[in-house]
Amino acid sequence: DVKVTQSSRYLVKRTGEKVFLECVQDMDHENMFWYRQDPGLGLRLIYFSYDVKMKEKGDIPEGYSVSREKKERFSLILESASTNQTSMYLCASSSTPRGGELFFGEGSRLTVL
Amino acid sequence: KNEVEQSPQNLTAQEGEFITINCSYSVGISALHWLQQHPGGGIVSLFMLSSGKKKHGRLIATINIQEKHSSLHITASHPRDSAVYICAVGSNYQLIWGAGTKLIIKP
Questions:
Q1: Binary contact (B86, A102; C-beta < 8 A)
Q2: What are the backbone angles phi and psi of residue B8, rounded to the nearest 5°?
Q3: Which residues, 6+ apart, have CB-to-CB distance to B50 below 8 Å?
Q4: Least confident stretch, A44-48, A88-92, A95-99
Q5: C-beta separation of B29 from B49 below 8 A
Q6: What's the mean pLDDT in A87-105?
Q7: What is the pLDDT of residue B26?
Q8: Which one is predicted more confidently, B5 or A1?
Q9: How far is B63 from chain A (nearest CA, A)?
Q10: How confident is the model at residue A75 (pLDDT cuts 50, 70, 90)?
Q11: Within an 8 Å CB–CB cutoff, is residue A90 touching chain B?
Q12: Of A83, A100, A80, nearest to A92 (Cα)?
């Protein structure tokens, strides 16, 4: 069964802490995405990657960075967490960036105090 | 005006009813996705289509490219179908997301 696995389902961090969210997929997909989901705002794209070591900014990249050192792993980094980054973070992968079926992880709910 | 609009925003129905959720878009697309999200859960892809109609179990998705409109139908609805249904369109190497339709099926 194909799978996208996110490292943590729930995290609680303090303002100013560095936060790592990891995502691993086992489908050999080139394309991986990080979204955040907030009530009333739907899904918003933070960053995506179409190849190892490649990354592109999405709609809301401010305050975030990403790392893709291996094809199967895409990490989202909050260098200095702030309360407005409290959200649900969803990782996804697809075989093509716009036409391929999307596979999502279970999500990581981050609370920044 | 949003590029992808879903209707209705919220829908409550009785078990067994035929359900229709609509998605209209204003951009040129390569594909349209329907996805499902249960409360507290991850998102699951239901359909990806670029023309015509697809069926999977009690779910049917249709798309009319000329009218820039897609519908998701659920036949013989069941309480376990209660979820948020999300439409997304692929355009110019990006996905544009609808706001979702929250469906509640009462037993």
A1: no
A2: -75, 170
A3: A99, B29, B30, B31, B32, B63, B65
A4: A95-99
A5: no
A6: 83
A7: 92
A8: B5
A9: 15
A10: very high
A11: yes
A12: A100
State how far the Cα of B44 lies from the Cα of A33, in Å rounded to an integer: 15
The Cα of A24 is separated from the nearest Cα of chain B by a number of Å equal to 15
Find out whether A106 and A91 touch, Cβ atoms under 8 Å: no
- Return all residues near B83 (Cβ < 8 A) that are at least 6 apart: B36, B37, B38, B39, B102, B103
Q: What is residue B92's predicted lDDT score, i.e. its pLDDT?
A: 57
Asked if B41 is an interface residue toward chain A (Cβ–Cβ < 8 A), one would say yes
Q: Which region among A7-21, B63-77, B87-101 has the lowest average model confidence (pLDDT)?
A: B87-101
Probe site for chain A from B50, B95, B97 (most A CB atoms < 10 A) = B95
pLDDT, tens digit, 9 for 90 and up, residues B37-76: 988 778 999 999 989 999 999 999 999 999 999 999 999 9
Q: Is B99 on the interface with A (CB under 8 A)?
A: yes
**B30 interfaces chain A, CB cutoff of 8 Å:** yes
Q: Are A108 and A21 in contact (CB under 8 A)?
A: yes
- The type of residue at B15 is E
User: Any idea how long chain B is?
Assistant: 107
Q: Answer yes or no: is pLDDT of B20 > 70.
A: yes
- Asked if residues A105 and A4 have their Cβ atoms less than 8 Å apart, the reply is yes
